[in-house]
Design a protein that fits this description.
The protein is mostly helical. Helices cover 65% and strands 4% of the residues. The chain has two domains: 152 residues, no CATH class; 197 residues, no CATH class. A hairpin with a 4-residue loop joins β2 and β3. The longest helix is centred in the C-terminal third of the chain and has 33 residues. The N terminus is likely disordered.
Amino acid sequence: MVNSMRNKYHISTYAGQHIFWGLLSMVWYRSLLFRRIPNCSYEQSILILWLLFASFIILGFLFTAPTHRNTMNLVITLLIPYEVYATISLGKYFLLGIYCSAAIGAVLSILLALWVLLAPIKQTANRKRTVLRRLYQTAVNTRVIVPTCLSSILVFCAITQLNGGIPVAMNALPSIDESVESETIANHIETLCLLQTETWAGLSSEERLSVMQVVANIERRYLGIFDALVVKTDVLEEGTVATYEDATNRITIDIGHLEEDSPEEILNSVAHECYHAYQHVLVDLYLDSSEEYRSLQVFNTAREYLDEYSDYADGGSTEQEFMEYYFQTVEITARAYADDAVGEYFTRIDAYLAASDNEETE
């Protein structure tokens, strides 16, 4: 049997364990593995998480309290709400893993159920009671086995956190060569033609991310950035379509933005974040310069970038906070650069396609 009928805890202790470890696990999950549910606000996602948590904790306690008050059932009760929430928030990106885990759990549960239910009943006078007890035991066993197998979704969440974004098929991503001399629009024009709206609509998330990595490689060359820029995707905070993290040189595109918005908008976001990377390089150059050179006019903009990044306004939740964010010099110049970049890319794409059409008609 997976569970012993012996109760390890007094019922009051068992209830206290649920409350204490439940709240501790919530702090842990929200700090390390929490992701906003796509198309839901941060507040809505938190509410859904708490509703799942409260529901499964109460149901798990009521189900196991009579005869199975032990550590294993406590752990399973705590796992279930987080597995359900993780499946809702990230499950579509881990479908194969979920299906395989569920299938393994189902097979093991069925085999154990057959072993329990088909065992000979020695005391036929208590046949009905014995069958009911075995059915209950089978339900408890299944409740342990299936969530244990499905804990793979939490492993996926941890990998997502460590990876800095939702893992995609690695063979879909272009290599990030340290040599950037060949990273030009002309050399990648056929790949960039995938940005046409009709073609873009038929691309998978992995293929779209691959195109955006090519864009980042090109922008790195044009902007003269030494370090490679890595493009990832993840579920970002509501209202945020992309971010740049200077410590890791990582650009993260919101998965909803990548999957639902136009190629022009996504290209604009990536070019915008690439320019933020360039701004940070300028700040580093300024800080690395000796004091006598820092007053040079060439560093005027870098000094302004440094001041703003030292006290960066990220937009907040009010109109006033948004305006403070929107009119920072780092954002104004990044928006201007991105708008120009989008125009340049599509001008070059249109010219290439027109030249190709002319060659075919000749």
